């Protein structure tokens, strides 16, 4: 009688496994133990190593395989699964398929795009060919994820390699990307969040700045520094007025992260988690966070979104504004304001079990927004008292330190030559105030304004941004006014008492009113906010938008130069933000959609501006990333929502389809890439404008995507019909999809018959047309 066969403890065989859902996150799928196959001979069970009888075909042998035909018989008894040695297969895949050496499998690689994998049911003896860029790149991604979970060998479902790309990308965003982009500023998260790719000082020791008036927080971080001496953490407390331009400039050589909101848990402070954009942007950003929040809400992460509003309330209280980003060099700058819509959207999704707590939270957010509105956006220098238009016009001194090393070389070189200095020497003397150059001061005033606008950079704002009352900013402030009025009326019984004392801007604004401050009685009365006042402010702003920014003859909104007192006829897609905010009349909306939308709509969605407005590009006048032909998630989302608001759902769906098609094809063809932006004309993420693209530099598997691009996908899917979603998953070009639809509609009109719903019938009818 044969002796009993004792397997190593904890061994799980493939046929003993409990079948789990295939399309789950990596931690669930790869989190179990190793799996092995049963064999009549113990030596072939691979318990002591994986050495398949048939090695994967490689190099000159790959083309000897018979081509798999569509009529070949396929086993349908069970889903196909593969038995894979993780490290060996990673080696073979990269060696065979990654011909450009970037640790990604893309359509630009020249490999055979085919690999044989041993099936689990045959103990790796029988093989099945994995073919094409998408399956091979998914294989590489799955192997990388298995390695992350310390798996040496896996049983991999074929369904994870052939997964619907729309479902796969949406799943990765929800289950993986948001998690990878999550940061916390506390003892557990400091080592990650203090890393700053934009720091060019050469000093890498982490530094945190704590606001004045938070002694417990300062002591907490000092204790972290004592508990973790290896970090060499430098804890600094900011002065009461941290945004003084001279002080902020003095921090250029000692940049650091700014402390954000914390909560007490079990007697100790804990950082409230938040999402960063990703890549070189490893801190909390202002307008990025709004669009990130929209994606979080789609994915059910309401608590995370709420925490980001808590950080903005903290920033307004301690730093005077919602900062461009939570680093010391951003203390003078803010970004486009979205706080009210962000807070109201989250409020509408809060758990209804504690309405009083929800109401108290919204009250804090609205009060913070009112303070920001009065002290930043309708106060000088951002407010132009003559027109009442608000501008991006931040304080600041010197050269922005967070830019790439060579970003201003072309600007500084003539001044350096003038003084007989190197660019570095001139920069240091200019920043120290030893050299005075008024024209350069003016240049950097506008450059800082461009960065505050979020559109850094574009020829739309070149050397004039600080003087412009832009259409985007006016619509955002109109939305602020409407949101605040609506919240006061609907949630706070038409009266909201302000708890913090700060300067209130006069209304309506004028040169005279700014010269005459409010009396004590007027200030006291203004502390009690009513919806009537805010709706009046919104109505007044709509009037100045129509007066200064709307151009009837061109059917478009334009920016207004408050110094030259004229419209700037650069055609920007931000004109459609008027639809999002609701400040356009029905007639203006009709003009925008029927006469101007076509100027911006290209194959991959909406470009930032028109080619004509951008002008000719040359070596001396290079492309700017917020100009034609580039497409950005904020512009897409704002247009989709705005068009839907005015009843142009078909146009919104068409634009969403275009952008998601571009995203999905890049995801399929380039190893799962989700970048910061796209060239929407060439449908390419390979962008060479300015600092290139973000979110594309990863090895084997995408970890983060990019914050607002992730959101654009999740939000965009909510606009698509089932038919559209299916077409996007098959990477059906918009020209084909909408061309076929138009052809079928025309056929129906000509014949008086409804077109067939059968796929083959649809194709035949399209051919006949």
Automatic annotation (TrEMBL):
<dbReference type="GO" id="GO:0005993">
    <property type="term" value="P:trehalose catabolic process"/>
</dbReference>
<dbReference type="GO" id="GO:0004555">
    <property type="term" value="F:alpha,alpha-trehalase activity"/>
</dbReference>
<dbReference type="InterPro" id="IPR008928">
    <property type="entry name" value="6-hairpin_glycosidase_sf"/>
</dbReference>
<keyword id="KW-0378">Hydrolase</keyword>
<feature type="domain" description="Neutral trehalase Ca2+ binding">
    <location>
        <begin position="91"/>
        <end position="119"/>
    </location>
</feature>
<dbReference type="GO" id="GO:0005737">
    <property type="term" value="C:cytoplasm"/>
</dbReference>
<comment type="similarity">
    <text>Belongs to the glycosyl hydrolase 37 family.</text>
</comment>
<dbReference type="InterPro" id="IPR001661">
    <property type="entry name" value="Glyco_hydro_37"/>
</dbReference>
<dbReference type="InterPro" id="IPR018232">
    <property type="entry name" value="Glyco_hydro_37_CS"/>
</dbReference>
<dbReference type="GO" id="GO:0005509">
    <property type="term" value="F:calcium ion binding"/>
</dbReference>
<dbReference type="InterPro" id="IPR011120">
    <property type="entry name" value="Trehalase_Ca-bd"/>
</dbReference>
<dbReference type="Pfam" id="PF01204">
    <property type="entry name" value="Trehalase"/>
</dbReference>
<dbReference type="Pfam" id="PF07492">
    <property type="entry name" value="Trehalase_Ca-bi"/>
</dbReference>
<keyword id="KW-0326">Glycosidase</keyword>
<protein>
    <recommendedName>
        <fullName>Trehalase</fullName>
        <ecNumber>3.2.1.28</ecNumber>
    </recommendedName>
</protein>
<dbReference type="InterPro" id="IPR012341">
    <property type="entry name" value="6hp_glycosidase-like_sf"/>
</dbReference>
